[in-house]
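Model: Ready when you are.
Researcher: Fold this.
Model:
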Amino acid sequence: MVRNYAFTFAAVTLRLYQPAMLPLMNVMPSLEYSAVHESAAWLSLLGNVLVAEYFIVQRTLAPLARRQSSEPAEALLQQ
């Protein structure tokens, strides 16, 4: 579900990135609108997927690492 939300909200972040990147066309006259749109689309998709993967890793792998690091301490306490 987290990945699904990331892909769904990529359209929302595209609409946030695109107006922010349009002033680049004034700075670089050779830059076309299609290049700005394509770059904004990739940025929105990549940014959302990276954030989603970060949350997935934190939710699944971080508790495992904490549990594995505390197991030797628990074994010492039981002896």
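Researcher: Now this one.
Model:
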Amino acid sequence: MENELRKTLLETAAAFAKASGCAVSTVGRRAKKDPNFFNRLADPEISFTARTFDEVMRWCADNWPAAKQMPLSLMKWIAETGHQPAQVSA
């Protein structure tokens, strides 16, 4: 289960970086105030909590670039949690 969540976080961060035109380290700095967060997360020896998973997914949902397609995993998380992403004004 943890490996699936890890994969989801890494893929979501990569998709966010691509959609916003920044580096994954920038996503880490913005989401967790830690530019090395996703580098460490890629190490299967490093553990993380379900709370961390939800915090990062919530941040991505709330800050997703307007008019850019969200990855399916993020849309699924939104549907499963009932989270209402912050509306970005155009």
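Researcher: Key takeaway?
Model: Residues 8 and 21 are 20 Å apart (CA to CA).
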